[in-house]
Amino acid sequence: MWRPLKHCGYWTLAKLMSGFASRLPLSASWKIGDYIGELVFHQASVSRNRAKRQIIQALPSVSNVEHLALKCFQNLGKNLMEFLHFQQTEWVDTAVRLEGQRNLDQALSLERGVIVLMGHFGNWELVGATFARHGYKLNAIARPIRSKTINNLVVGNRRQAGYDSLDREKSLRKAFRCLKQNELLAILADVDTKTSGVFVNFFGRSAHTPVGPVAIARKTDAPLLPVFMVRQPDNTHHMIIERALDLQKTEHKQHDLIENTQRFTCLIERYIRQYPEQWIWMHDRWKTRPVSN
Fold it and tell me: Mean pLDDT throughout 89-117?
């Protein structure tokens, strides 16, 4: 009996917070986001320590690991506040500078749809809102959040921003339909999940990485376009649409999946090295280990 009431209470709180945040100037929202990130950084010791440990392992030359880890949490706090502004997205037009739109239009001219390949970098949710503001139809494959309250809020905000969510576990047929209709299909492919994956090199260590994007590209011949949303020092954004990945396609399917997954992983590593505070170092990226023979 209490669970539905508790659930309803969380939903009301989340909606109130969203409505409050959307009325704030972005400058105030960024300050609140910094505060939220710092608060979580100090309270979530497991995530904080994991972030610091993985930074040390991946970037041994970093002198102030504590500061970098804090900036990572603060970036997520600002991401959250910007996401709560998705009820109205006119601000995106001035907050995001788009580079590489020609790469996207060339890929769409093939009429096979486009797989937008992303990582949890910068403000990745803003990619869908930006594409929508430029008139593109985007569908994002995502795992539903366990809390239905928060999941409803997230899915609702995405729809208000002009793009849709597809359930990662149930929407493969819809994903193929989107590509057939020459739409954009966004997939995040830089985390260790329970989905089908291969081990590739990431910061000098074997990392279990999803093969979904390259597997779909192999099956449909849809081009794979890496896209990165880079936060700038003034909290505006630079959205970069890279050229379509040159994918290897031979009779050796498994080898091709590994090689093509490695190519994207190398690209996202390059961006992370340049902007290390904009990646999710608190994620347990090297959790799954290769089975020893």
Answer: 97
If you search the block for the tokens 């909290």, which residue do you land on? Answer: 235
DSSP 8-state symbol, 121: B
Question: Would strands 197-202 and 205-210 be described as parallel, antiparallel, or unpaired?
Answer: antiparallel
Range 202-214 average pLDDT? 96
In 3-state terms, what secondary structure has residue 284? coil
Q: With 50 as the cut, is the pLDDT of residue 200 above it?
A: yes
The burial of 205, by beta-carbon neighbours within 10 Å (0-12 exposed, 13-18 middle, 19 or more buried), is given as middle
| Whether residue 223 has pLDDT greater than 70 | yes
pLDDT mean over 1-21 = 57
Cβ proximity of 237 and 243 under 8 Å: no
Long-range contacts formed by 268-271: CB under 8 A, 24+ apart:
268/119, 268/121, 268/190, 268/226, 268/228, 269/202, 269/203, 271/119, 271/121, 271/228, 271/230
The 8-class DSSP code of residue 212 comes to H
Cβ atoms of 115 and 223 closer than 8 Å:
yes
With a cut of 70, say whether residue 62 has pLDDT above it: yes
DSSP calls for 33-44? HHHHHHHHHHH-
